[in-house]
Amino acid sequence: MRAERDQDDTVRTQKRPERRLAYEIAIGIIIGGMTLATIQALIAMVAWQIYLHDLKVILR
User: Fold this and answer.
1) Which terminus of the chain has a smaller tally of CB atoms within 10 A, N or C?
2) CA end-to-end distance (rounded Å), the chain
3) d(Cα 33, Cα 30) in Å, to the nearest integer?
4) DSSP characters for 2-25?
């Protein structure tokens, strides 16, 4: 004979997923956007330095 679990036990063992608040999601999006913008700015600065160096070499 097979024993069945009570429904009450499964309800207690299952954790409810935590609800994410809208501001938490918004903060994550803002921080992610700022991080991407910073990385893009750093790449642009490196590219600009390479361009200026090449221009100096050409104009010599």
Assistant:
1) N
2) 93
3) 5
4) -----HHHHHHHSPPPPPPPHHHH
Task: For the full predicted model, state whether its pTM sits above 0.70.
Answer: no
So what's the pLDDT on residue 19? 79
Q: What are 9's two structure tokens?
A: 């036990």
Element (H, E) at 56: helix 22-59
Residues constituting the chain: 60
The CA-based diameter of the chain, rounded to the nearest angstrom, is 93
Q: What is the DSSP letter of 60?
A: -
How do the domains of the chain map onto residue ranges? 20-59
**35: which 2 tokens?**
């991080």
